[in-house]
């Protein structure tokens, strides 16, 4: 249990130390106007306070990823704790903070717009298609996962089809209505339930003295379990997730001051890391090791693990509340996945979103496509989601590195994790059954060549961008709160 507790302490310390360092590197301008005021439209650009934005951000980014991913990652043993802690502090939280803050500096722009601005016009089109595909996968995964949990919780008395329909109806409303009408009102309450459920499971393990395995030199690399690259894609949310790059611009459009960014973007990623630690520990400690966990996963997937762990630690009533907290996670990320997809498409085609019919024309085709994807096997969807997710993280980290390079600041804080994940995703897709199915040795060589080539290309483009003095932020000179309120 010492490894588990030390890991959580390190995450918290990381927020107050490395988080502050990253904030200093970026260079916050506390008095600079944010898009919530300069672009106010009472639909997507709506000023909200720090507490509300923080809880919404946490729910936006914390889907089933920081629960299902760490549960499956628990099969690797305590080494999973290392990736969650190191990944969250030095990769995931940096990724989220830079994406959110650069978006604030650019009218609340989404990742495709930022990629076009800092990585070239071609990347704008590529990332736009890639981001929409990722969000469709996320939205679909976050329909089927909570539907399965609800079906099990109600012992099947409500049909799966009816549950799916109810979730889709909620998603449609949350996607179309102004952000402060549903999301801004219910997310803070849901956020409290999420925190209570996670703390309940974590405290339950501590109080009962659960046998959470310690990290040792002998289990640092489990026998017959290849850690690289699978561990780094299995545990994505909770350590590093490209999905977050599609969500942070939603809150960058409601943030009132740049000074709030560290708490909202960096801090909520650390909170997600704590949630991931708790569920990874539960997976390792409660089911008689990897063999028992594997059997439970084979019988009912991560959803059954959640149900069994919650009931075991908290009893029938407490366990039900904990399961409800877990159900809320994917639902409150699925709705913003579709909302983000709607906003990205609207930005790409320069379609105003003040009228609900304009939002409807974009949203309906997304929901029709997503419903079709629910017919595909969840496990297969998750594999494609994992790769697409981490590839998106690579793009976002390189955007952050380019921004800092042009600004002549410490770009290595973003480029180093970007390079690592670029190599990881390339090895995976070259070797994986859903990819090119190459021998692992060839995959390593191919990934090395691709990584070196792309990093060299980055520096060539970065030097050119710095020489051309690519603008880093929108011009808000002449703006004042009194003008914004007219």
From TrEMBL:
Keywords assigned by UniProt, alphabetized: Cell membrane, Membrane, Transmembrane, Transmembrane helix
The keyword Transmembrane is assigned to this record: yes
Spans traversing the lipid bilayer: 75-98, 126-151, 157-179, 186-207, 227-243, 264-287, 312-335, 356-373, 385-405, 412-430, 442-462
UniProt-listed Pfam families: CstA
Record GO cellular component, one term: plasma membrane
Location(s), subcellular: Cell membrane
Family stated for the protein in its record: Belongs to the peptide transporter carbon starvation (CstA) (TC 2.A.114) family.
Protein name: Carbon starvation protein A
The species this protein was found in: Paenisporosarcina cavernae
């Amino acid at each position: 249990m010492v490894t588990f507790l030390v890991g959580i302490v390190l995450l918290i310390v990381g927020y107050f130390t490395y988080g502050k360092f990253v904030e200093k590197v970026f260079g916050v301008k506390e008095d600079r106007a944010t898009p919530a005021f300069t672009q106010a439209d009472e639909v997507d650009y709506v000023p909200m306070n720090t507490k509300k934005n923080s809880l919404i951000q946490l729910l936006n980014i914390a889907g089933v990823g920081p629960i299902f991913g760490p549960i499956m990652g628990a099969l690797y043993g305590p080494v999973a704790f290392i990736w969650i802690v190191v990944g969250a502090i030095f990769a995931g939280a940096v990724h989220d903070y830079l994406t959110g803050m650069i978006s604030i500096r650019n009218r609340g722009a989404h990742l495709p717009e930022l990629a076009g601005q800092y990585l070239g016009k071609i990347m704008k089109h590529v990332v736009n298609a890639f981001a929409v595909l990722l969000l469709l996968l996320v939205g679909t995964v976050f329909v089927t996962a909570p539907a399965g949990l609800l079906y099990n919780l109600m012992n099947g008395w409500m049909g799966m089809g009816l549950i799916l329909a109810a979730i889709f109806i909620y998603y449609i409303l949350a996607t179309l209505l102004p952000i402060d009408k549903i999301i801004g009102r219910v997310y803070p309450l849901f956020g409290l339930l999420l925190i209570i459920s996670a703390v309940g499971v974590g405290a339950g393990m501590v109080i009962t003295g659960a046998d959470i395995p310690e990290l040792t030199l002998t289990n640092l690399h489990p026998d017959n379990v290849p850690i690289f690259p699978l561990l780094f894609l299995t545990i994505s949310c909770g350590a590093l997730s490209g999905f977050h790059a599609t969500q942070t611009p939603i809150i960058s459009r409601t943030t009132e001051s740049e000074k709030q960014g560290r708490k909202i973007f960096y801090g909520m990623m650390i909170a997600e890391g704590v949630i991931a630690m708790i569920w990874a520990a539960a997976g390792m400690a409660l089911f008689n090791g990897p063999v028992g966990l594997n059997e439970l996963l084979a019988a009912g997937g991560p959803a059954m693990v959640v149900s069994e762990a919650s009931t075991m630690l908290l009893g029938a009533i407490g366990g039900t509340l904990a399961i409800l907290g877990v159900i809320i996670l994917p639902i409150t990320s699925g709705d913003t996945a579709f909302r983000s997809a709607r906003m990205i498409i609207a930005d790409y085609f320069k379609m105003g979103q003040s009228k609900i019919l304009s939002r409807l024309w974009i949203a309906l085709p997304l929901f029709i496509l997503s419903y079709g994807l629910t017919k595909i096997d969840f496990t297969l969807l998750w594999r494609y989601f994992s790769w697409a997710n981490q590839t998106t993280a690579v793009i976002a980290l390189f955007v952050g590195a380019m921004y800092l390079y042009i600004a002549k600041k410490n770009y290595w804080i973003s480029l180093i994790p970007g390079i690592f994940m670029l190599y990881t995703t390339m090895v995976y897709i070259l070797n994986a059954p859903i990819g090119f199915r190459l021998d692992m040795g060839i995959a390593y060589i191919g990934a090395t060549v691709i990584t070196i080539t792309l990093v060299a290309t980055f520096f060539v483009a970065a030097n050119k961008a710095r020489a051309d003095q690519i603008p880093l932020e929108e011009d808000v000179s002449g703006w004042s709160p009194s003008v914004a309120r007219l």
